[in-house]
Amino acid sequence: MNASAQHPLAVRTTCAYCGVGCGILAKPDGRGGAAISGDPEHPANFGRLCSKGSALGETLALETRLLHPMRRGADGTMARTSWDDALASVASGFAETIAKHGPDSVAFYLSGQLLTEDYYVANKLMKGFVGSANVDTNSRLCMASSVAGHRRAFGSDTVPGSYADLDEADLIVLVGSNTAWCHPVLYQRMLANKRARGARIVVIDPRRTATVEDDDLHLPVAPGMDTALFSGLLVHLADTGALDHAYLAAHTTGFTEALVRAREIAPDLTAIAAATGVAEADIARFFDLFRGTEKVVTCYSQGVNQSAQGTDKVNAIINCHLATGRIGKPGMGPFSLTGQPNAMGGREVGGLANQLAAHMGFDADAIDRVGRFWRAPAMAQREGLKAVQLFDAIGRGEIKALWIMATNPAVSLPRADFVQQALKQLDLLVISENVLSNDTVAAGAHMLLPAAAWGEKDGTVTNSERRISRQRAFLPLPGEARPDWWIVTQVAQRMGFAEAFNYASAAAIFREHAALSAFENDGTRDFDIGALAALSDDAFNALDPVQWPARAGAPLADSRFFANGAYYTPDRKARLIAPALPALHEAPSPAFPLLLNTGRIRDQWHTMTRTGLSPRLGAHLPEPFVEVHPDDAAQHGLSDGGFARISTRYGACVLRVMISAGQQRGTLFAPIHWSGETAAAARVGALVAPITDPFSGQPEAKATPAAIAPVSHALRGFALARGALALPAESWWARMAVRGGAAALFASNAPVAEWRAQAAALFGSGVELAEYLDEPRQSYRAAAFEDGKLVGCLFVGPAEAAPQWDAVKALFEAEALPAPQRRAVLSGRSTDGLADPGPTVCACFGVGLHTIRDAITSGAAVSVEAIGKSLRAGTNCGSCLPELRKIVAGAKVVETA
Ligand SMILES: Nc1nc2c(c(=O)[nH]1)N[C@H]1C(S)=C(S)[C@@H](COP(=O)(O)OP(=O)(O)OC[C@H]3O[C@@H](n4cnc5c(=O)[nH]c(N)nc54)[C@H](O)[C@@H]3O)O[C@H]1N2
Ligand SMILES: Nc1nc2c(c(=O)[nH]1)N[C@H]1C(S)=C(S)[C@@H](COP(=O)(O)OP(=O)(O)OC[C@H]3O[C@@H](n4cnc5c(=O)[nH]c(N)nc54)[C@H](O)[C@@H]3O)O[C@H]1N2
Ligand code: SF4
Ligand SMILES: [Mo]
């Protein structure tokens, strides 16, 4: 291994989370943990990490891990089995199903969290050896509309630009992207450009998110109406002489038709304002900015992709860049931000059901070419089922055997309750997982296969700017966990394909993948990493981050695409696309008068199987909530901090109400992260409609018609315990990790006396219980001690005066308590030496709201910068800076009032 893989003390690897693809230095501590820091030399982050990346060290413990193969017995319980039995059973289960019902009766459902090597072998097995293309992935829920939009415009799934463009742009347009929370390190890069060079930022999002700073232009577009805005922009560019006629003539087709359609959709400012709900003056400002700024990058994410017309949205954006020739040049271009760490790698190998491999589709030439390269006996001849259709087919009993790897569809697919039921229909459900339990596993797996997790696995991922980075193992494989690629190839070998799946290492798979990308390519396909096809194992181990294309024998001066045309369409010209008239798939109705928008929060990752293990990350927004506009809240009788039942045609959940002026009237926003494992009634995916985009098959996750009504709970409270925490079934609860244990916040209509009875059950019999009961006031508090150590707390009180938990949590997290503080626990307040920090604002340094407010009111820190200096808050990842600014501004208003 050469110097670049091995830092003197640490292993160089790549973050487990988002598509920014930050480089990480991991220093194992020899006890199963590791110190995590940003890799100063990685070109994606230059040393920075966000709150999630920084907290990766808190997610490495093995308590929740699946460490052995498990098989379901006749009585329905899971029991440990051997790898030999597990692999043989999976192989024979799939082989028998295929023999009996044909290749299309089986399917794989994969994930952008697999490594490229894992993905490659799974795709090869299904599309070349089983003979079906029923391989789809959670990227269908994530990047599919961008893929489809790219292929329509460019003839290939190409992201033309690089992160460096964000440093050089003079205008950055963020469409449907909460970059500050979801791509935090890139966002910091954009802010650095803004501060140093004065780049302007425009945010197009129905919500005013943390991404919007006061001096940015925010366009609160009506849900789904982005195409009206970008059609209007195209018209404006045409009418104000801002087109690049030379580029249009030399390198594109379809402009005339696209402009005609744009004029129909968006004839003038009045029409655009009516369609988008954005003020005419703001639309005009945006158009002027775009027209007048040569160097403009338009970044977009799920507000664009996860839409019933997501592909058209993508093309409406790309049209504007093509029409101005602003593509593939420094500081300009359309830029799809990828979600998962290997969303891009999955696209490279052909993880989607409508892609074959190495950016080839299902045309006869490609099928023949890939078939010869793989020496495949049974090439799939046509596209397979896309995720939502795939689960429909499972529900109908047409798919009989399914293998899920690295995704939790019982939470993350639309209509998640249906998905959970559909999984129960399967004759064979195999799940490769890191964790012992999640909602998908709970739906009833027949076989659980323990996969290596981040820190243990070894291979490559590709980030948003097409940069391939190594993920390297820095921990040993725990228990019997094995890499995903190993599991797949072992099954393939047992299915009779030993020769084609006989790989000694991830490096061997990567070489084959790279060779396929270059096979009969000759410049006809964008994805070509032939230069990496002959890497030795050592060179693979030492591989520095490398951007594609990386053609053999052709070192690149510039890794951007399309500045001089050369698109991958048959005539090598880009296509401007005429989008359909923008319209919601289903408008609100009297029964479902609001639109439910769903998305992410700063410190959680998807279904929380990993970020949920971190006390730091759980502290920011600990409970599942729904954001509601003040007027809607008033109309529906909701109060801030109360509860509401949100229901759609497909399902319902109960969430805490957060009244927020940043929320657009008529819309709700709920985060996607909570599951049946972490909350009582907060599986938001159950509410989402299974409506998909006609080109990409990507579901509309941002606009499901919904109803909302208040739910009342007489009591609220919290529980803390050192071990597992089980709350009564009829209560509403949300669970989170705290240092040294677990916590739950709950609400209930059971009388306090019943909660008192719960206390003993919660903490077991061996503890010393201190109690306080005030029945008339509906208040009960219990603290359990063992050898002087606080081992549990249960606090219940009336909902309108709910017990505050920050101080008690701080006491619980302290290792041992001196006597005065033991007595103080029941008071619910902190005493000397243990200040109550309040709800966490800065996750990196664990700085709470009260601490920050105290610093402001004492005059010690009156600006965001001063808070950073004295408390460190906001000085690491910067994700909390928007909140700090609000706190400082709020404090000033109070002062002057
Ligand atoms: N903290 C955190 N970061 C993550 C993840 C995570 O789970 N947590 N997941 C990663 C993954 S896989 C992904 S895909 C990305 C997603 O990153 P983002 O796309 O930035 O995240 P979302 O919150 O899903 O949605 C973005 C925004 O789209 C807006 N939106 C909704 N409807 C519309 C519309 O019609 N038009 C427009 N213009 N905007 C609309 C929403 O209000 C929301 O603020 O994040 C990645 N990063
Ligand atoms: N309503 C709504 N739904 C959405 C979205 C939305 O915005 N709104 N966003 C969609 C998007 S963009 C995405 S990307 C999805 C994400 O949704 P999911 O992919 O379902 O979410 P995760 O929690 O990331 O699930 C990953 C699972 O794989 C396991 N795992 C992690 N690493 C590995 C590994 O290396 N090997 C194996 N075998 N297992 C592993 C984890 O323990 C976890 O159980 O959600 C989608 N669903
Ligand atoms: S921005 Fe954060 S989550 Fe994304 S790769 Fe970087 S450290 Fe990881
Ligand atoms: Mo995603």
UniProtKB/TrEMBL annotation:
Pfam families, per the entry: Fer2_BFD, Molybdop_Fe4S4, Molybdopterin, Molydop_binding
GO biological process: cellular respiration; nitrate assimilation
Cofactors that this protein relies on: Mo-bis(molybdopterin guanine dinucleotide); [4Fe-4S] cluster
InterPro entries, per database record: Asp_de-COase-like_dom_sf (IPR009010), BFD-like_2Fe2S-bd_dom (IPR007419), BFD-like_2Fe2S-bd_dom_sf (IPR041854), CT_Nitrate-R-NapA-like (IPR041957), MoPterin_dinucl-bd_dom (IPR006657), Mopterin_OxRdtase (IPR006656), Mopterin_OxRdtase_4Fe-4S_dom (IPR006963), Prok_molybdopt-oxidoreductase (IPR050123)
One Gene Ontology cellular component: oxidoreductase complex
Keywords, in A-Z order: 4Fe-4S, Iron, Iron-sulfur, Metal-binding, Molybdenum, Nitrate assimilation, Oxidoreductase
Molecular function terms, GO-annotated: 4 iron, 4 sulfur cluster binding; metal ion binding; molybdopterin cofactor binding; oxidoreductase activity
Domain 4Fe-4S Mo/W bis-MGD-type: 8-64
PANTHER family associated with the record: NADPH-FE(3+) OXIDOREDUCTASE SUBUNIT ALPHA, RESPIRATORY NITRATE REDUCTASE
Family recorded in the similarity comment: Belongs to the prokaryotic molybdopterin-containing oxidoreductase family. NasA/NapA/NarB subfamily.
Name used for this protein in its record: Nitrate reductase
Biological classification of the source: Bacteria, Pseudomonadati, Pseudomonadota, Alphaproteobacteria, Hyphomicrobiales
